[in-house]
Amino acid sequence: KLKQQVISRFFAPK
Amino acid sequence: MLELRLTQAGLLKKVLESIKDLVTDANFDCSATGFSLQAMDSSHVALVALLLRSDGFEHYRCDHNISMGMNLGNMAKMLRCASDDDTVTIKADDGSDTVTFMFESPSQDKISDYEMKLMDIDSEHLGIPEAEYQAIVRMSASEFARICKDLGTIGDTVIISVTKEGVQFSTKGDIGTANIICRKNTAVDKKEEATVIEMAEPVSLTFASRYLIAFTKATPLAGQVTISMSYDMPIVVEYKMETMGYMRFYLAPKIEE
């Protein structure tokens, strides 16, 4: 089964 | 005081049409660099980064950095009232809660202004590191749009695989499967039809088709699209606007649970 990742997993808040 | 003048309203119209369905509200940031926007979709799966460089404008006055919260659907509605060849001027006074879009026809015989309410938007800016991507594909933007649309009718996810020979798009759905291979090809009549692959290592990642389809709303902005991929990184789908800047879409991949 595939799980959708989110952007915050890769880019941190500035 | 902010005053930005752009001779081709059509460009700004295309920009808005390409993001308004992905992002509802966003802050436009104005600085000496240019007019920019960074926003995530409501599920935080995709991120849009737009830059319209200051030197691409006919006139660019931005006394100090300013952030203007706008509803993109409403902004698109107002811009649709401009003709593509109108000159558009975006104006805002310091501390004002409105922004004005002024449209002038090429012969200067029709001048319209539309004032839109600004809104307070709480949005965090994400730091996007400069990255070296393992695989970069440049191909026809309209071909990429066609592929995303076609595969989206078969399955919910698209696997994009890059090898040095080409790029493969695959999907699987209830009715069956589909595979499209675009081989690298620079022997083309029009340079926008070329498929160029720059690859350090083969990469294969899985993405939700509906987001890729949403990104292709930006197709009218550029002849070519640049797709950058690395393992454990969001894909970047970039439309470069000649002299003006770029529209970049980032999409987090799907992984095996």
In short:
With 14 residues, chain A is mainly beta. Chain A has no helices and 1 strand.
What this model shows, in words?
The complex is a heterodimer of chains A (14) and B (257). Chain A is built from no helices and one strand. The mean pLDDT of chain A is 94. With 14 residues, chain A is mainly β. Chain B is mainly beta and 257 residues long. Chain B contains four helices and 19 strands. A nine-stranded antiparallel β-sheet of chain B has the order 6-2-3-4-18-17-16-10-14. In chain B, strands 5-1-7-8-9 form a five-stranded antiparallel β-sheet, with helices on one face. A four-stranded antiparallel β-sheet of chain B has the order 13-12-11-15. In chain B, helix 1 packs antiparallel against helix 2. Chain B is globular and about 55 Å long. The model of chain B has no long low-confidence stretch (mean pLDDT 97). Strand 1 of chain A pairs antiparallel with strand 19 of chain B, so a sheet runs across the interface.
Q: Give the overall pLDDT of chain B as a whole number.
A: 97
Shape of chain B: globular
Beta-strand proportion of chain A: 15-25%
Distance between the termini of chain B: 51 Å
Largest interface by Cβ-Cβ < 8 Å:
A-B, 14 and 25 residues
Strand residue percentage of chain B: over 45%
Integer average pLDDT of chain A: 94
Distance between the termini of chain A: 33 Å
The SSE string of chain B, one letter per element, is EHEEEEEHEEEEHEEEEEHEEEE
**Radius of gyration of chain B in whole Å, from Cα?**
19 Å
H/E element sequence of chain A: E
Query: Helix proportion of residues of chain A, in percent?
Result: under 10%
Output the strand order for the largest sheet of chain B.
6-2-3-4-18-17-16-10-14
> What does the largest sheet of chain A look like?
none
Q: What coarse outline of chain A follows from CA principal-axis ratios?
A: rod-shaped
pLDDT < 50 runs, ≥5 residues of chain B: none
